[in-house]
Predict the 3D structure of the following.
Amino acid sequence: MANPTVAIVGRPNVGKSTIFNRIAGERISIVEDTPGVTRDRIYAHGEWLGHNFNLIDTGGIEVSDQPFMQQITAQAEVAIDEADVIIFMVNGRQGITDADERVAQLLYRADKPVVVAVNKIDNFESRADVYDFYALGFGDPNPISGAHGLGLGDLLDEVIKNFPEVPDPAPDDSIRFSLIGRPNVGKSSLVNAILGDQRVIVSEVAGTTRDAIDTKFVHSGQEFTIVDTAGIRKRGKIYEKTEKYSVMRAMKAIDESNVVLVVLNAEEGIREQDKRVAGYAHEAGKGIIIVVNKWDTLKKDNHTQKQFEAQIRMEFKYLDYAPIIFVSAKTKQRLQQLPELIERVNVNHEKRISSSTLNEVIMDAVAMTPTPTIKTRKLRIYYATQVATAPPTIVVFVNDPELLHFSYKRYLENQIRKNFDFSGTPIHIIARSRK
Ligand code: GDP
Ligand code: GDP
């Protein structure tokens, strides 16, 4: 499940985010002439010749109040800590600078493969400039142009050659889950409290990066794996305090999980950062449970839980399918219910409904609330079938997909949820026209 990670490192303005966007295939971060503009995303998926990988733009990790060289050092450290292969990017129009040399020195000491990308080689004549970068000491420099998309294929070929060889993991029925949330909500306390009651069977290096440690335990015959507990452990590097870095860690953990526990802090309530992190889990299509921790800290009456729940439902409208559990890592309140809940959400996430049963439900739904007519054209639903699990994905064959608007789709989803237990999992409904 764990894909290799590629990090792009290099001083500001060499073109890291331009290349990041090209490789990720979407315009997901802002490119401007100003060095150090705020970037949206620094973590994305890439694919090249059938190899899937995670991609990090370390340039997006800005440690506030740090001098220039400290910033560059922190970014190189992120690359060294997180990546299996590092793309070291330089500017082919400027030659080697002090900052390039600083990065090179850090990378020599790291035991990770480094591929040099010489960017801004926009035309054939300037290719000669590339040879200067042999002096960095990382082998053949690869000329590229982010502006024109040149040389990227050769660069990625080189990157892929350096991927670690991972044996196919043995088939595993373990349910993989992660705990995500902003700092101090109690993620590591929860992990410890959960594990305190369980027999931990192994703690092993999994995935491809050395510091990704998964912890396994068995509960009522079901094996569980807590993803990325090492990421939760505090190591005390300066970049770990940045929000970009913690969001990146969370996205990586989400990728590798079947079920994601979105942890909130009852004491502090819901914050903006909680919503961003939860949004990523939702987008990734994983099973989700909302865990409200530190429940012991509130003075409660008969309404406290209902009120808190209402607030969560209002703030996280798109997560209406996610069950909510109120716990305390400190007193262990309700923690023993967690494994069963995770297991149930995982079953729902992987649930497959037969076409005949599904069509009965859909046809009943249409009988109860007839399909809408939009600009004199009536939506007709012919047939529905579940085409995928994790998350459950249903294709509905119709006369014209444009006629299946959000509200009717929502109605169908609710009818499906009334008939089958899909709690904790998103359902994707896709309209296709029947030929
Ligand atoms: P970062 O700070 O390393 O992430 O650099 P950016 O990706 O933000 O790019 C810095 C500037 O260089 C922007 O103005 C880009 O448009 C420009 N740039 C990026 N790649 C190329 C390239 O291949 N050729 C040229 N001429 N400009 C480029
Ligand atoms: P993380 O940054 O999300 O991993 O959070 P930690 O597990 O390090 O917890 C942050 C702080 O909250 C620590 O001081 C914990 O002792 C405290 N804490 C964690 N869970 C609970 C809880 O359920 N109740 C109370 N009262 N404190 C908690």
Summary: The first strand starts at residue 5 and ends at 9. The longest helix spans residues 68-82. Residues 181, 183-189, 232, 293-294, 296-297, 328-330 surround guanosine-5'-diphosphate (ligand 2) (CB under 6 Å). The chain has a mean pLDDT of 89.
